[in-house]
């Protein structure tokens, strides 16, 4: 087994991807240690999950800072203190700004619940269903200053021809977890 790489996971909500990645890291399935969880929503479930798993977190409220640059500077200093090498966004609902992008250029990835470049932005699954698509999916891509527009790293598709948002969301979530774990593992093993 190769040496463990320190990663950070950014989330704003439920945290099922965070939980799946952290569980895989603890089990030694990926050569990673989740050194920091960053969350901009103090009430989010993911905050409790990180606490339960004993993973250090930085939880902040954007409104307590004068600007995005200010809170991102704080995030960068926490990431550096934790010696984080790779940032994995998993349901982080803030646009990543210049401070973070320049400090971690080429080392920030995101998961999006559609086959990009289709259905960027929020409500991706709902948008896809409104179009009547028959093939849904998930994409992992590098993060740059565009919205869900950075270079694609990995994708997985699933067929679904029903009309239940809950059902297709659950299916997409389960492929997301697997895809994210495999992709992190590949990226870290290359280093
Ligand atoms: C996932 O569907 C991810 O693709 C999107 O936000 C959702 C986060 O879910 N970016 P969870 O918080 O990991 O359960």
CATH homologous superfamily?
Formyl transferase, N-terminal domain
* Basic shape: globular
SSE series: EHEHEHEHEHEEH
Query: Which structural category do the helix and sheet elements fall into?
Result: alpha/beta
Number of domains: 1
Write a brief caption for the model.
39% of the residues lie in helices and 23% in strands. With 191 residues, it is of the alpha/beta class. The chain has a seven-stranded mixed sheet, with helices on both faces.
What would you say this structure looks like, in words?
The chain is α/β, with parallel strands linked by helices. The protein has six helices and seven strands; from the N terminus they run E-H-E-H-E-H-E-H-E-H-E-E-H. It has helices spanning 16-26, 45-53, 68-81, 98-103, 124-131, 165-190; strands at 5-11, 32-39, 57-59, 86-89, 108-112, 135-142, 152-159. Helix 1 links the parallel strand 1 (5-11) and strand 2. The model has no long low-confidence stretch (mean pLDDT 96). The structure holds 5-O-phosphono-beta-D-ribofuranosylamine (GRF). 5-O-phosphono-beta-D-ribofuranosylamine binds next to helix 1 and strand 5.
């Amino acid at each position: 087994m190769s040496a463990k790489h320190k990663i950070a996971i950014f989330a704003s909500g439920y945290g099922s991807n965070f939980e799946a990645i952290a569980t895989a890291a603890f089990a030694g399935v990926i050569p990673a240690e989740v050194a920091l969880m960053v969350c901009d929503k103090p009430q989010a479930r993911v905050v409790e999950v990180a606490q339960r798993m004993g993973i250090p977190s930085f939880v902040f409220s954007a409104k307590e800072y004068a600007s995005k640059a200010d809170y991102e500077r704080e995030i960068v200093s926490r990431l550096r203190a934790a010696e984080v090498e790779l940032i994995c966004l998993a349901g982080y609902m803030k646009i990543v700004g210049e401070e973070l992008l320049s400090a971690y250029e080429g080392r920030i990835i995101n998961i999006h619940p559609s086959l990009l470049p289709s259905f960027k932005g929020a409500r991706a699954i709902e948008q896809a269903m409104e179009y009547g698509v028959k093939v849904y999916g998930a994409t992992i891509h590098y993060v740059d200053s565009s919205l869900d527009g950075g270079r694609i790293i990995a994708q997985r598709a699933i067929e679904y021809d029903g009309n239940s948002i809950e059902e297709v969301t659950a299916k997409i979530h389960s492929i997301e977890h697997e895809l994210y774990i495999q992709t992190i593992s590949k990226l870290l093993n290359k280093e």
